[in-house]
Structures are given as C-alpha cells and as structure tokens.
C-alpha cells in the first residue's frame, strides 16, 4: 500500500490587488512613501535652492522616486503583477535601490540645511530643515518596505 503525499502548499506569493494594497503589509508603506517624497520635493522647490549641485540630486531622487512609486501603486491597484514571483523580486530591488538613493539625498539635503543656517535667512533654513526631516523619514519608509519584503 503506497502512502499518498498531501498536496504541497502553494509557494506562489500572494501579492495584493485592488484596495487590499492599502491593508496588506508591507505594501501599505507605498502611499506614505509617495506622500513624504512629495513633501521633500515641494519643500526643496520652495527654497531658494542656494546649492544646486546638492539640492538638484535631492530633487531628482524625490521626483523620480515619487513618480515610480506612484506607477508601482497603480500597477498593484490594477493587478498588473498577476501574482508573479518576479514581481516580488522587482519590488524588492526597486525599494532597496531607492532606499540607498534616498539615503544619499537625505544626507545631501542635511548638508544643504547646515549650510543654509549661515545665510541668515530663517525661512530658507526652516524649509531646508523640514525637507531634511521628510527625506530621512522617506528613507526609513523605503528601508522598512525593502526589508519587510525580503523577510516576508
């Protein structure tokens, strides 16, 4: 008498689609990533951009990350991923790379904030400080998202 093996559990990832994106961990971080990244973009654009080499990179990272994350969110909402394992790897790769880029942008923005302190322009310093704060928060969100996908 042969023993029958129980059916193997599906190793297929369960990626969210539709409104479940807003309730599923770690995909719930996508909207705060977009929101905080947009604040970095807005706050840096509101300054006088006294350091174009520093803040140009910050603007590039924040704008491109915000737009790509928005496209990623829309693709999850509309189910373009079709529950593919490759999609999970792409998501992890994107969030890992963006976390590194955002860390560099946050450090450069903090440098611009320190430099703007000596310009005696209080509004510019406050805007740069807020942009630095949101840049580090956004970095943390991308890191958290990347690690939680990796360990899921």
Q: Any overview of this molecule?
A:
- 70% of the residues lie in helices and 0% in strands.
- With 152 residues, it is mainly alpha-helical.
- It has one domain.
- Helix 1 packs antiparallel against helix 2, helix 1 packs antiparallel against helix 4 and helix 2 runs antiparallel to helix 3.
- It is elongated, with a radius of gyration of 20 Å.
- The two termini are 39 Å apart.
The domain count comes to 1
Mean pLDDT: 82
What letter string, H or E per element, gives the SSE order?
Answer: HHHH
CA distance, first residue to last residue: 39 Å
Largest sheet: none
- Structural class, by secondary structure, is mainly alpha
Note the beta-strand portion: under 5%
Residues in helix, %? 55-70%
- The geometry reads as elongated
Radius of gyration: 20 Å
Tally of helical segments: 4
The count of β-strands is 0
Low-confidence stretches: none
């Amino acid at each position: 008498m042969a023993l029958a093996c129980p059916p193997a559990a599906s190793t297929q990832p369960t990626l969210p689609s539709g409104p479940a994106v807003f309730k599923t961990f770690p995909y719930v971080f996508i909207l705060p990533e977009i929101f905080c990244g947009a604040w970095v973009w807005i706050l840096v654009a509101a300054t006088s951009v006294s350091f174009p080499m520093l803040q140009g990179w910050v603007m590039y990272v924040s704008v491109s990350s915000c737009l790509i994350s928005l496209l990623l969110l829309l693709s999850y909402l509309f189910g373009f991923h079709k529950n593919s394992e490759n999609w999970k790897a792409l998501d992890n790769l994107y969030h890992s790379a963006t976390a590194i880029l955002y860390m560099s942008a946050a450090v450069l923005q903090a440098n611009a904030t320190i430099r703007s302190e000596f310009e005696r322009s209080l509004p510019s310093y406050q805007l740069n400080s807020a942009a630095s704060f949101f840049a580090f928060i956004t970095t943390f969100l991308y890191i958290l998202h990347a690690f939680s996908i990796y360990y899921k």
